[in-house]
Amino acid sequence: MIKLTDLINEMILQEELVQSDAWKAIQRTIDILKKKKKVLLLSCSNRYNWDDNNIDVPKSKMIAMYLHSQLINNSVLIDVPELNIVPCEGNVSRKDGNSCGVLKSMLKDKDKNPSGHHRCWASFNNPKDELWKVSKELFESDAVIFFSSIRWGQTNMYYQNLIERLTWIENRHTNLGESNLVKDIQSGFICVGQNWNGEVVSETQKDVHKFYGFKPNKDLYWNWQYTKNVNDETQKSYKNSYKKFIQDTKIQDNKE
């Protein structure tokens, strides 16, 4: 017999569920990106897998993979956690001033840096750094979409590390007075979380990308979040969130 308190709690939870129209957001995103010559999709969420026969793919990466499958003729998908991207060295705020993105920091490798635009001391100082795999594709694209999970109300460490390592793009035109390399690149940010701060994170990243010099498209900034109840940390909630994600996005039903 169902307890009245359980029934009430279930009704409250249903009222707080969000993003039931995720499929519409996905279709809107596809419609916009299909018009682009080349789209760079940067998936920044990770998952450890214990069972090769039961692979667990992060939800935000599932969206990225689905978009890639629909944009196969004009998109490149990069799994950022698979790259060796070392942490930012903080050269933007040295005691002797700002040396981020100066000409001396240019990556001197024509294969990794064919445009000559990649200027980052962390890449210069760390031969095994793989940020160039992102920047090389970025400078050939007219749209870029970042994907991230929400952890503790913020973007996850892989996205944060990536965006910090791209500071030289912003610094080039704001501090050094040179050209804006990404002024013609339309940007977007899609994030997935459980119960806290997804909308705020998405809006904040839109501002960040605007500062960087990208052309943010408001229709390419959206989030999926299971519930608005920040205190709902039950195991049942986490298990149900995956089912609702599949239901809302229809990704599993539209794989082929």
Description:
This protein has helices at residues 4-16, 22-33, 59-70, 121-125, 132-138, 157-165, 167-174, 198-212, 235-249; strands spanning 39-43, 75-79, 143-151, 154-155, 186-193, 215-225. The chain has 256 residues and is an alpha/beta fold. Strands 1, 2, 3, 4, 5 and 6 form a six-stranded mixed beta sheet that branches. The radius of gyration is 20 Å and the shape is globular.
Outline:
This protein is α/β, with parallel strands linked by helices and 256 residues long.
Give the secondary structure arrangement, pairings included:
Elements: H1 4-16, H2 22-33, E1 39-43, H3 59-70, E2 75-79, H4 121-125, H5 132-138, E3 143-151, E4 154-155, H6 157-165, H7 167-174, E5 186-193, H8 198-212, E6 215-225, H9 235-249
Parallel strand pairs: 1-2, 1-3, 3-5, 5-6
Antiparallel strand pairs: 3-4
Mean pLDDT: 92
**End-to-end gap:** 42 Å
| Percent of residues in beta strands | 15-25%
Outline type: globular
